[in-house]
Amino acid sequence: MVRLSLRSSRPHGDRAPSRGTQPSGGPPASAAPMDSSSQSPPAGGDPSEDGAAAELPRLTVTQVEQMKVEARVADIYRVLFDAAPNAKSVMLELWRDQHVEYLTKGLRHLAPSFHVLDANRPWLCYWMVHGLAVLDETLDDDLENDIVDFLSRCQDKHGGYGGGPGQLPHLATSYAAVNTLVTIGSERALSSIKRDNLYKFMLLMKDKSGAFRMHDGGEIDVRACYTAISVASLVNILDDELAKGVGNYIASCQTYEGGIAGEPSAEAHGGYTFCGLAAMVLLNEVEKLDLPSLIGWVAFRQGVECGFQGRTNKLVDGCYSFWQGAAIALAQKLMAGSDEQSKQSQPSKLSSVDDSCGTSSSGLASEKSSIVDYAKIGFDFMKQSNQIGPLFHNIALQQYILLCAQVPEGGLRDKPGKNRDHYHSCYCLSGLSVSQYSAMTGSVSCPLPQHMLGPYSNLLEQIHPLYNVVLEKYEEAYEFFSSE
Amino acid sequence: MHFVDQIAESNPKNYQVWHHKRWLAEKIGPDAANSEHDFTRKILAMDAKNYHAWSHRQWVLQALGGWESELQYCNQLLEEDVFNNSAWNQRYLVVTRSPILGGLAAMRDSEVDYTVEAIMVNPQNESPWRYLRGLYKDDNNLLVADNRISDACLKVLNKDWTCVFALSFLLDLLRMGLQPSDELKGTIEAMENSDPETGHADIAVAVCSILQKCDPLRINYWSWYQTTLSS
């Protein structure tokens, strides 16, 4: 159990009015002739400051929103802390049956209001199928076949998957479709992926900058890079042509804060940080990032509510349990232990440089070659054990997910007060899994009870943090595609 | 574009509509700069952190111009909400990339003063701490040499010795080679009751163990950080 000082909804005596006044003194002289930048920075209300101020503190929007969330979360945690031991263990249970029902029902039927996701149907498949797989649920054969058939109809005849039958192919929906098919994992599912066409589609999406567009004439960003690289790696079509330049683009998206943005100069963001880091690992170019700076940023995204926020000074959200949790779990795997020869925490560069033939896309047999076996990077990544423990508070994260993100009727949500949805169900569960497996170091082969919050029956299936598919399913797919 | 703006306004988090605006604006050219800035300003007035709006605004600046009033716009937003990290991020873009401001080296001094002042008023605001660090990106020596920085950390700690951002910044400075003043050593000793004869490497370790106590949520992170200190 993690108890941190949260603002509760009960009135606090120590919330003294702050000195919410402007700093005195004239504005400093501006360095820029054309710009009247010369203002003193403003004062937001500082509720924790003691002081006799004449005026009431003016709290900013950020502060107000944050306090509201903290109050709700504090109320939930207080119930837990005050509960008797028996009640506590019930509260910390993962409501598996309810989540399974919510996800399974959604696969067969969604209400009319879901028309807003009509261009995202492979995502809906993935969120539900992956969510169920993480819960270790298998689908009926009929359902599996129907999904495979449906996704096949989303496949464009020239390559890639669109949001629905007849829709333009898009990298994100391709990612969702392929991940779904890998999760289903049958011969039928895996062979339904037209890899040659997928490769051609990706090559068309490649921009001269090295980055990828989401779709024909579409936006370029770190998400597009990740979805392309992840899929290409997973189905073993990643080669130098696809890989070139991507690493430099992603590196240019790391901001002064340490996290990664969607585009160069934009704000550091958890979703893009995961996408950027995972892609760099798959490309074997992590050394282009400032990893300690990235870790430092992600570590500070975990707040008093125990969950993760997506950006500095924004609100906690259950889905970042995966985006931020997996990002920092990836970094953990890359860090050598302190007894290694590296003095500064140098990330260990994975060497999947293959000096045998047969893996090069050009098919040339070379004795001395530095051809990177890209697909093998993903495979080898999980073969090495963690040298160091988790870099975030794994128990606290589990506390947020179990107590604040679960909905009693089934499904998981962003935060208390928000509704459940399939996206949050998928990513809260994925984040929970990452968290449960994060403390396995050395030769430990499965999570120990002390790594987990709640009963051991809460244990989920392990996922592969680079692709976010269940590890077992990934391994089967790896076998399948490396023999193609 | 007017048509698309109406759709964007009611769907401000939709990727496709923003991308379409970008495509259109590119075709229209520099003439679109003002109206695009007006439009993003409107969206940001409703949600000052809308990621798409900020991305679009940045693209317009870099592709079509309009830098003249951007720093003032950042000032305004920070005046309204000094915790708005998107505004601090935008400030970083303006200070480093605006063609009319002279670049980071020229702007750094006044920006340090601005940021330190923001920190003093709200030491619990993470944004200016990160921004301050960003001002010295890739130049650790300059950072360590700027007395205002270590002074600021010290000042904050003297008022609140548990301020995690101050301790963390101090730790980074020590790691980069900051020679702690006697006053700084004294402050840390008061927190830790450590031996007055310790060298600076041990001071870093001392700060790290203080952090493990003051910032229990990040105990795993600080424990790992400590292992990277011993060399």
UniProtKB/TrEMBL annotation, chain A:
- Cofactor(s), by name: Zn(2+)
Keyword Acyltransferase, does the record have it? no
- Quote the catalytic activity from the record: L-cysteinyl-[protein] + (2E,6E)-farnesyl diphosphate = S-(2E,6E)-farnesyl-L-cysteinyl-[protein] + diphosphate
Task: Give the GO terms filed under biological process for this record.
Answer: prenylation
Query: Please, which domain of life does this record's source organism belong to?
Result: Eukaryota
Q: Which controlled-vocabulary keywords does the entry list? A: Metal-binding, Prenyltransferase, Repeat, Transferase, Zinc
- Species: Aegilops tauschii subsp. strangulata
| Subunit note | Heterodimer of FTA and FTB.
Question: Into which family does the record put it?
Answer: Belongs to the protein prenyltransferase subunit beta family.
Q: Domain named Prenyltransferase alpha-alpha toroid: which ranges?
A: 95-469
Starting at the broadest rank, the lineage of the source organism is: Eukaryota, Viridiplantae, Streptophyta, Embryophyta, Tracheophyta
What is this protein for, i.e. what is its function? Catalyzes the transfer of a farnesyl moiety from farnesyl diphosphate to a cysteine at the fourth position from the C-terminus of several proteins. The beta subunit is responsible for peptide-binding.
Q: Which Gene3D superfamilies match?
A: 1.50.10.20
Query: What protein name applies here?
Result: Protein farnesyltransferase subunit beta
Q: What GO terms are given for molecular function? A: protein farnesyltransferase activity; zinc ion binding
A Pfam short name: Prenyltrans
From TrEMBL, chain B:
Reading the lineage from the top rank, the first entry is Eukaryota
The cross-references to InterPro entries, in alphabetical order and at most eight, read: Prenyl_trans_a
Give the UniProt keywords, A-Z.
Magnesium, Prenyltransferase, Repeat, Transferase
Gene Ontology cellular component annotations, sorted alphabetically: CAAX-protein geranylgeranyltransferase complex; protein farnesyltransferase complex
Enzyme Commission numbers on file: 2.5.1.58, 2.5.1.59
One of the Pfam families matching this protein, by short name: PPTA
GO terms (molecular function) for this protein are: CAAX-protein geranylgeranyltransferase activity; protein farnesyltransferase activity
Q: What are its cofactors?
A: Mg(2+)
Please report which protein family the annotation says this sequence is part of.
Answer: Belongs to the protein prenyltransferase subunit alpha family.
Provide the protein name.
Protein farnesyltransferase/geranylgeranyltransferase type-1 subunit alpha
- Species of provenance: Aegilops tauschii subsp. strangulata (Goatgrass)
Question: Taxonomy-wise, where does this protein's organism fall, top ranks first?
Answer: Eukaryota, Viridiplantae, Streptophyta, Embryophyta, Tracheophyta
